Amino acid sequence: MSSEKLPAQIHSSANMEPVAGPLSITHWVFEFQEGRVFRIIFLAALLFYAGFLALRMGAVAGAADSSGYINAASEILSGEFHPLQRTIDGLPAADLPSHAYVPLGFSPDQSDSARINPTYPMGLPLLIAAASFVCGLNAAPSAVLLVSSLALAVATYKIGRTCGLVRCSSFFVAFSLACSPQVLMMSIQTMSDIPAGAAVSLALLWGMQAEKHDRAAFGAGLAFGLAVLIRPTSVLLAPVMLLLCYSSFRALLWIGIGALPGFATNLIFNRMLYGNPLSSGYGAMGDFFSASNLLPSAVNYIKWGWVCFTPLACLAIFAPLWPGVRHVRAMMALWIWCVMLGVFYASYSYTQQAWWYHRFLIPIGPALVVLGMITLRQFWSKLPFALRDWHVMLSFIVMLLWSCWWTSELYATNLGKDERMYKQASEWVNSNLPRNAVIVCKQCSGSLYYYCPQVIVRWDSMQEGVFSKVREAAIKNGLPIYAVMYKEEYRQLKNPEIRGPWHRIDSVRHVTIWRLEDQH
User: Fold this and answer.
1) 122 burial class (0-12, 13-18, 19+ CB within 10 angstroms)?
2) Does the pLDDT value for residue 30 go beyond 80?
3) DSSP secondary structure string, 202-229?
């Protein structure tokens, strides 16, 4: 490409003012945006990102959520959706508090006290079960998380392009979001946030194209249905899809047809598991939502939003204020989606408690960073051209350093290691404890239920006299009693209701293993 043609092409394709000289930053940006060079760089960035996540992946049956999803996937594959509780002979579940034998990630069956049901929505377990036919159940959670993380990054890039951002800016927002502490943290453990975010982002992307292409409308519906199946609150996306396609009944019809399988599957599973299509494993959630939570959650948004989703998130609110912005309908759809989901989760009692509860907002992450970039480009357009020439490189460097700093400070990429600890503790139990043992636990209960055959008893159900029943039944059946405690849980062994003496026999990082002495 000749340097004589460079300025005009930059002005038309990248919306930048021309600058002389083939060694300028603008020349570099333009070459970066050329199709073949860009595709190579974009693919290399995706491969590097996938490798980075794979090395830190901890998609195993760990704490409550991760073990709940993988246990549910296992139940799907076995065809047993209401598994029997593991109990001590002579001490049925009906004789103990309702959650005594119930591992985290499950809830008691309301119609049969001897059985349990999965707690969490079935979308992610279904994806894991499907992936298991390709790579096996042990690798399936990691595969689903990796594919979802890459899909989220690509969809963010494509949404940026659809909203009028040039390739360089879209690349910038996609990988700024991908490398943000909240997204990195949730990309390396078996949680529904990243798959839900990817499904929502694909629904938005294809929804923006739905009026022009029937296939895009059908794809938007499929992604919308999958998003609801993974996380039912994604139904709030419906008004946004209507805004994107309100002028085309044909597009709305194709979206509805595409969404039908996901919606129907969700209702069927709810009816089968909980007795009502509109019920869920969470039980009554009304007490967790209140207008009184809005202000504390808003404070938490202000405090941590720019950390969790990069400073671009702070600029998103200003995007509709700029006159003459292209693709107004797409931009307003993104803005409304951010407001709707943000306000909804602001009313949730957990959102105000810690920075990592911003994970509920990952489905609006792509919209936040794209809207933030639209605002930032308007600021850039007011700068002297000598400064504007450097904006992309400087912004990318600042955002990369920002993400590295906060990711390290918040321990975001080490959560995979912590999740793997649950599996390691379960492997220790399998190798060292009798298969007929009774294990007192709570935090590790879901992981132990998945990896180990022993009976588990939750210490948080040990009301007055409960442990005496457990102990007597174990002695009668000749069963040894152990405790597997995570971090500070071992303090519960001093509880009078779980009287010892207990002897510590080993530990696996933060998990300690204890044996009950004097069981006669």
Assistant:
1) buried
2) no
3) HHHHHHHTTTT-HHHHHHHHHHHHHHHH
Cα–Cα distance, 411 to 36 (Å, whole number): 37
In this structure, of 198-202, 320-324, 407-411, 503-507, the range with the lowest mean pLDDT score is 320-324
Sign of CA dihedral 472, 473, 475, 476: positive
Element containing residue 108 per DSSP (H, E): strand 106-108
Mean pLDDT of 33-43: 80
CA dist 299 and 414 (Å) reads 27
pLDDT > 70 in the chain, percent? 90
Q: Give the Cα-Cα-Cα angle 370, 373, 376 (nearest 5 degrees).
A: 160
Residues near 234 by beta carbon (within 8 Å), at least 6 away in sequence: 196, 199, 200, 224, 227, 228, 363
Q: Identify the three-state secondary structure at position 438.
A: strand
User: What is the rounded CA–CA span in Å between residue 441 and residue 492?
Assistant: 10
CA 435 – CA 453 distance, rounded (Å)? 6
Most confident segment among 220-224, 245-249, 489-493 = 220-224
Q: Is 351 left (phi over 0), alpha (psi -120 to 50) or beta?
A: alpha
Residue 452 CA to residue 112 CA, distance in Å, equals 24
pLDDT digits (tens, 9 = 90+) for 128-165: 999 999 999 999 999 999 999 999 999 999 999 999 88
Task: Please name the residue ranges forming H helices in 104-192.
Answer: 123-135, 140-162, 167-178, 181-186
Closest CA relative to residue 42, chosen from 194, 145, 156, 180: 156
Q: List all residues 6 or more positions away from 235 whose beta carbon is below 8 Å from its beta carbon.
A: 228
Give the Cα separation of 50 and 483 in Å (integer).
Answer: 38
Cα gap 348→134, rounded to integer Å: 38
The rounded distance, in Å, linking the Cα atoms of 68 and 122 is 10
Contact call for residues 194 and 362 (beta carbons, < 8 A) = yes
Give pTM, 2 decimals.
Answer: 0.90
Structural element, H or E, at residue 281: none
* Residue type, position 410, single letter: L
Rounded to 5 degrees, what are φ and ψ at 273?
Answer: -90, -40
**Per-residue pLDDT reduced to its tens digit, 191-245:** 999 999 999 999 999 999 999 999 999 999 999 999 999 999 999 999 999 999 9
What token pair was written down for 112? 């049969």
Provide the mean pLDDT of the chain.
89
